[in-house]
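Incident log, entry 3
Record: PspA/IM30 family protein (228 residues)
Problem: checksum mismatch between cached and fresh output.
Input:
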Amino acid sequence: MSVWKKLFTAIKGGANEVAETVADSQALRILDQEMREAKDQLRKSEESLTTILAKQKLADQKTKELKASIAEHENYAMQAMEKGDEALAVEIAEKIAEFEGSLATEQGMLDQLNNSVRSLKASIKDAKLKLRQMQTQVDNIKATASLHKAQEAVSSRHLGANSKMKTAAESLQRIQEKQKQRAAEIDAANDLASEEDGRGLQERLKAAGIMENQSAQSVLERLKAKKQ
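Fresh output:
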């Protein structure tokens, strides 16, 4: 398959295949290489066109010279016949025939060169247009690939930041829960100590006769007094 055909195949199908090419870095490198080869072939085609144009110019000049020589010798032949010099007229006619043979050859070559020039110019023009279109495709592919890489990098950093934030939040929550647990333990210990201190003080007050001992009998006597 020629480079041009491979290039045309590489971009055929429009946006879908372009998107696939973006995802395939190897295909992108191959496409770059084929673009370079296509440009090199185009340069060689232009060099060939320059050579053919030079040959065309020489062939055109040669045909013009032969036509001028034929016209010149036809005039000589007419003059020889007017003077009655048949032998000279025949000799000139032979020369004219020789010129006409050369002219036919040169004209055939010139026609071929003209056709080649027209065909090659059209092909080069078409190739340049397609090459520009493909270069635009390649540039778009590269730009899209770069954009995707940038988006992936941003997404990766965002996910990493979110993960770190989540981890930090979880750590903070664990610390807060531990602090709450510790605070509750301290409060419970303080309450327990207060209760123990309170009971000890009451017992000492009762023993000193400062606080009455609230026995069941004393409660009944108090209730009877209220009833009377």
